[in-house]
Amino acid sequence: MVESTPHAHHLLSTPALVGVCATVITILLALVVGIYRCFCRRRYSPVPYPAFKPPDEKGGKASLAVGSITPKSPLVSPSGEGPVSYPEKKSGTKSYSSTSSSIDPHTIDTKWYIENEGVRKCEDSNIAYEKGENEESAQLGHLFFSVEYDFDKNAFMVTIHSATDLPIKDPTTNSSDPYIKLCLLPEKKHKVKTRVLRKTQNPIYEETFTFYGLHYNQLQGITLHFVVLSFDRFSRDDVVGEIVVPLANIDMSETAVHLSRDIRTRNTKIPRNQGHGELLVSLSYQPAANRLTVVVLKARNLPKMDVTGLSDPYVKIHLLYNNQRLAKKKTRLKKRTLNPVFNESFLFDVPIEGLQNVSLEFQILDHDRVTKNEIIGRLVISSKTCGEDERRHWKEIMENPRKQIAEWHKLTE
User: Which tens digit of pLDDT belongs to each residue from 34-57?
Assistant: First the structure.
């Protein structure tokens, strides 16, 4: 005889259940804290400045290396998103100690620096600075920097020491938040910038930038282009001014050369006696497809917009109907040229009954990384435009469908 027993249920005791719950809650809390820390770290960690290695001994490709000191005081990135932490210097980059906590900019001995006399001319940029402009430049301040060449490492070094007497750009704090951009002309390939210093008109940077792979004899054709800006958290940064320094007559063969320059107004306006250039465009209308074909071929005799004496042009095209913008296109950027060749085609859908009220607006702009892009010239082609050549061009494409008609047009302001 088999004795049957009821099925036994094994239940957890109350202390064991409490322990399991406490363990689960602890794990969840640790996971949430870890995720939160990772999120904060990724959100507030800045992007470090580029640090490139020098060319290897076997003759590798020359590259740019930027070495800047790490100041003791907390820094703010130009983007305004938080403090900047600079990467450690790599071997091959000279280190410079910061003295920003103890130097008074007004105690700097300006006689220690080389001052310009008479007219300073830059042949590459066709710019002449005269003593007569001192009244304006004095309001924009002065920049102190030094240049040096290391023959052992084949490296060119620029140290930005300080700036003095900068104008007020932030009326809310009655001060400025200055930083400096440096570019090597004419190639514009090497571009660096200092950190932002808050609420000061006399910033002290003591930052060194090292450019590898530049032979000493190449420096004769290089021009330093400094642009002084004031950081603005809510809009585009304000341009204080610029400094153009050709290296042709600076001897760095024995020791570092200390320089000072007045900050000049950055002038991007086209002289009145200089034209705006011409643009060659080809137009064709396809009635069956209700399609307008626009070919931007090339431009010529554009004005000089850069300190290099050249421009970086591109073309914007707007299709307007009764002065209302319907579509827009743009060409690729052409660097360092006053006679760019584009050869780019664009298509616009335009019903034949709307041709009388349609117009094409062309804008040639000069690309600028520092400030907003400047308009070089404009052109409007339609049946109602003011220019006689533009009206005739539009009339020809309407009377000759499916035929490409190209003409040169003068650009206006």
Answer: 787 766 555 444 333 343 344 444
